[in-house]
Amino acid sequence: MINIKNLSFSYNKIPPYILENINLEIKKGDYVSILGDNGSGKSTLIKLLLKLLKPCSGTIQINTQKIGYVPQRFEGFNSQFPVTIYEMLNCHRKALKIKDSSIVLNSLLKVDMLNYKNSLIGNLSGGQQQKIFIARAMMGNPELLILDEPSTGIDVQSQYEIYSLIKSLNTNLGITVVAIEHNLNAALVNSDYIFKLKNGKGQILSINDYKENFQEVMGYASI
Ligand SMILES: Nc1ncnc2c1ncn2[C@@H]1O[C@H](COP(=O)(O)OP(=O)(O)OP(=O)(O)O)[C@@H](O)[C@H]1O
């Protein structure tokens, strides 16, 4: 699905690189979590995958055009802003030039949010808002779903629902998932493996490697 070879990148095009000689192959149906300290280049890597940035050297090959992106959720939607969930998603449908309007309700059904179609986004909880953003990303029927910190600012019960949803899209629909994670437990429970960024370098870690070397590789005392 994704093949990254010898990728190096810096914003000013010259060394030192933020990402240096990164190699990563992600297979169809994989669920991979990208971990790393603040400023380690996780978002930069995602922007490169989304072709918002160009590598300084190396290549990124992605074997699908059908990519759904769920950006980091931000607080503070204006609950009085007079746009319903349905209208918001329908607008996105039009932007994607999808003729079949039933896709809006189908995408809400996929995330179990059909009952909220007439609600205002600002009136939903953080977890519910995140489900709507996942529904939006699902509208293009993606084969690859890229998420930026899917559980940031979301209460524990809703986090559980969000990860159940992402995991079921991965397992039941075969969607490849790439998620930037700060939620270590979610990364350990849901991912097939972890890609860890540190000092510009990338390291693939199996879940077992990660658990065994946790203290050393992540620099945390405990989960
Ligand atoms: N547009 C930009 N121009 C110049 N430097 C940038 C730009 N965006 C990010 N950087 C720098 O690139 C480095 C990597 O940033 P990036 O946002 O990719 O890290 P991150 O791992 O996603 O961090 P965080 O966990 O804090 O979101 C940082 O040093 C950051 O300051």
From TrEMBL:
Top-level taxon: Bacteria
Name of this protein: Metal ABC transporter ATP-binding protein
Transmembrane stretches, start-end: none
Residues of the ABC transporter domain: 2-220
Coiled-coil residue spans: none
Keywords: ATP-binding, Nucleotide-binding, Transport
UniProt-listed PANTHER family: METAL TRANSPORT SYSTEM ATP-BINDING PROTEIN TM_0124-RELATED
InterPro entries reported in the protein's UniProt record: AAA+_ATPase, ABC_transporter-like_ATP-bd, ABC_transporter-like_CS, Metal_Ion_Import_ABC, P-loop_NTPase
Native species: Fervidicella metallireducens AeB
PROSITE patterns hit by this protein: ABC_TRANSPORTER_1 (PS00211), ABC_TRANSPORTER_2 (PS50893)
Pfam families per record: ABC_tran
UniProt family annotation: Belongs to the ABC transporter superfamily.
Molecular function per GO: ATP binding; ATP hydrolysis activity
